[in-house]
Amino acid sequence: MSTSEKTSPPTTPVTPPPPAPGPIKAKRRPGDLIFSGTALGAGTIILIVLAAVAFFLVIQSLPAFEADTTGNHILRGQSFWSYVWPLVFGTLWASLIALIVASPIALGIALFISHYAPRRLAAVLGYIIDLLAAVPSVVFGLWGGLVLAPLVQPFYAWLHEYLGWVPLFSGTPSATGRTILTASLVLAVMILPIMTAICREVFLQTPKLHEEAALALGATRWEMITMAVLPFARGGMVSAAMLALGRALGETMAVTMVLSVSGVVTFELLTSTNPTPIPANIALRFPEAHDVGINTLIATGLILFIVTFAVNAIARWVVARRAEFSGAN
Hints:
Elements (H helix, E strand, L loop, with lengths): L29 H37 L13 H37 L2 H14 L4 H27 L16 H25 L3 H9 L4 H12 L1 H16 L3 H4 L21 H8 L6 H31 L7
Helix pairs in contact: 1-11, 2-5, 2-8, 2-11, 3-5, 4-5, 5-8, 6-7, 8-11, 10-11
Membrane topology: Multi-pass membrane protein
Organism: Microbacterium album
Pfam family, one: BPD_transp_1
């Protein structure tokens, strides 16, 4: 028998490996289903309400854009955009001044609570800041018109006497102190709690490794804050400022009780002729409005809605970018 005719030994069949187990699905408990359904429903309701508000504003604003301005007792012959432009300027101008005044104060209070104050004092200050946000706006308006305005009027006269060459402080100072600067100071006090609370939480989220590393290298506490805390919290501070700006843009009663409607565009802060924000204009003009005048005021509310929505969208974009931070977490 030749070698090729020899019988080869039997081979053992190779068994294929078992398939990898698929992902194990967690058991859905009734409580999980109820919670997820409730959360989904709440989010859907928010979107529906927002869409309904936008639809209402757009539909009710159309007559203001289409009607003849000669018969509009609000526009009084001028175009809608000529009427709303000074109001948009007043809204942005007052809110910007309030933000400039409140930002350094809020950052200082937040840093003191998070990194300097003893624990018990920090807790008390945190409660006070949170309670300040619960004060009604009408109370701030009364305080601004009856207490703050007479209190700062001598200071306005001093500013005009010694710094009248600066365009912001030119013009005859108001004898009552009810100026755009006073209204902005009231707004600054109102947005202070939300800025302080957000900045405080962001500062407390700074990785301890970053702070301890800076201190271990010989940095002082302030140097540690500038090198570790503030860079980490930059996005949070910007988002806090934007959210506070959105609050200031929509404030009504506090500004209404301090200012009167003038509808001018001016950068002077101390005179009695002041720019008027959109919310205050709506609150002051609405009792006498009728027919297409109501649609005109609603149209200005639509412009305010768009501006506020844009500000909050920018804030959310900043927060989303900050969420991508990959520090020592």
